Amino acid sequence: MQPTSPFPRRSGTAEASVRPARHSDAPAVARVQAVTWRTAYRTVLPSEVLDDWDEAAAADAWRAAVTAPPTPGHRVLVAVERDVVVGFAASGPAELAADEPPHPAGPSSEVATLLVEPRWGRRGHGSRLLAAVTDLARADGTARLQVWLPEQDAVSAGFFESAGWARDGWTRTLDTGGTPLREVRWHTLLQETDGSR
């Protein structure tokens, strides 16, 4: 998929854009996360995760992620339509497994999450968010992007696959305090190992 510009673009009569998240966006980001998880991920995420969700605590965590990121490479972007935050993406340097060597192509970054509220789906917001993450990562010198997806999440897998991503063979199981969550890793190269793009 050819990255599109993260700058505002017109979609019909409504303006749709992607921009860096602001301090004041934190409650909206937490709301999008809660609504999306409870609606689209009800059969994917363990019930313990959804039942114990604390939206106020999530908003505080997102506010901290926006105002005091752990590194300059950690970012939160929001998708906006008609001045409403309808989706978001968070990314940062990839955390590789202890026994995993660095990728030969160069530094890796990770899409920690990319969500669009279901009622705003199929309007290009997910693609704009992914394109903006990709453009920023490439500008930082990142050679490879990766994302962990729940094994059952066929919708997200289809989205990343349509953008040219593929599974890389790594899996992990997360302890959620209840039902374990098995995830598979997808990746894409932003430049070839010889340095060409």
TrEMBL record:
Source species, domain of life: Bacteria
Region Disordered, residue ranges: 1-27
PANTHER family from the UniProt entry: AMINOALKYLPHOSPHONATE N-ACETYLTRANSFERASE-RELATED-RELATED
Keyword Hydrolase: no
Keywords: Acyltransferase, Transferase
Presence of keyword Cell membrane: no
Transmembrane segments: none
Protein name listed in UniProt: GCN5-related N-acetyltransferase
Organism annotation: Geodermatophilus obscurus (strain ATCC 25078 / DSM 43160 / JCM 3152 / CCUG 61914 / KCC A-0152 / KCTC 9177 / NBRC 13315 / NRRL B-3577 / G-20)
GO molecular function annotations of the record: acyltransferase activity, transferring groups other than amino-acyl groups
Domain N-acetyltransferase: 16-191
